[in-house]
Amino acid sequence: MEVPDTADEVAELALTINATLQRLEEAATAQRRFVADAAHELRSPLATLLAGLEVATAYPDRADWPAVVSAAGRQARRLSGLTEELLLLARLDAGAPPAPAERVDVAALAGRLSEEYAERAGGSRRWISSSPRRMPRRRCSRHPVTSNGSSGTCSTTPCATPSAACC
Q1: What one-character-per-residue DSSP string does 43-87 give?
Q2: pTM
Q3: Residue 159 CB neighbours (<10 A)
Q4: Using CA atoms, how far apart are residues 142 and 158, in angstroms rounded to an integer?
Q5: Whose CA is closest to 100, among 63, 137, 131, 72?
Q6: Angle 128-133-138 (CA atoms, 0-180°, nearest 5)?
Q7: In angstroms, how far is CA 34 from the centroid of its own chain?
Q8: Is 112 in contact with 139 (CB distance < 8 Å)?
Q9: What count of other Cβ atoms lies within 10 Å of the Cβ of residue 78?
Q10: Is the CB of residue 167 less than 8 Å from the CB of residue 138?
Q11: Average pLDDT in the 101-120 region?
Q12: What are φ and ψ of residue 104, in 5° steps?
């Protein structure tokens, strides 16, 4: 909106409207970027799931059906996890209180991630050996547990800010 060259209420109102419109445009851009990122994260396991099933269906006599079902189950669980994270973000954005702290078996988590990434890498596996240990973890809107399959990275970064300020 054009701001008149006067030093009155109309000029001040025009400046305020322009600032509000700018913030709305930035929020819409951020939301579009988030939706695109979420769609990409969901597309990867869906593509893997569909490709595995299509190949097995095209060559049913050569398919290792227990392996096909196992891989499909892993991808479905991955999709379920991504969906849960998106729902958590939506609940937190709506002002819902954060989930209470829960205990996480770190060795089991590392083992599951090791198996998942070994499968993607063609079967090479690095074993993580340790005595079972559990540690508290809180999820917050800025630090959900994520696994980015497209880049092969995993983040279980705990919130570094004081819990009252973040979680």
Answers
A1: HHHHHHHHHHHHHHHHSTTT--HHHHHHHHHHHHHHHHHHHHHHH
A2: 0.50
A3: 17
A4: 10
A5: 137
A6: 105
A7: 10
A8: no
A9: 20
A10: yes
A11: 82
A12: -120, 130
Residue closest to 154 by CA, chosen among 113, 124, 125 = 113
Query: Which contacts (CB < 8 Å, 24+ apart) does range 7-15 have?
Result: none
* pLDDT for res 134: 52
Q: 103 by DSSP, 3-state: which?
A: strand
| Residue position matching structure tokens 């090479």 | 124
The DSSP bridge pattern shows strands 102-105 and 146-148 to be unpaired
Alpha-carbon gap, residue 35 to 47, rounded angstroms: 18
The answer to whether the CB of 14 falls within 8 A of the CB of 1 is yes
Residue with tokens 């819902």: 96
Please compute the mean of the pLDDT values over residues 146-164 and round it to a whole number. Answer: 42
pLDDT digits (tens, 9 = 90+) for 25-84: 998 998 888 888 888 888 988 999 999 999 999 999 999 999 999 999 999 998 998 998
**Per DSSP, what are the bridge partners of residue 136?**
103
